[in-house]
Amino acid sequence: xxxxxxxxxxxxxxxxxxxxxxxxxxxxxxxxxxxxxxxxxxxxxxxxxxxxxxxxxxxxxxxxxxx
Length: 67
Hints:
By secondary structure, the protein is an all-alpha fold. It has a domain of 42 residues. The protein is built from four helices and no strands. Helix 1 runs parallel beside helix 3. The N and C termini lie far apart (45 Å).
């Protein structure tokens, strides 16, 4: 898996967003995603709900009503 992640980083100039997919996948699933990206020549597009993290991108202790 390490070699695939290095190849991904060289090809796309960024690390594979492994933390965004590990909750929904195991190691084999991650390997398959990286292989698909490399074969298709396209970096992985993180689904919107995963981009902000589990708390929706809000900082802990911050309220929506904070001014």
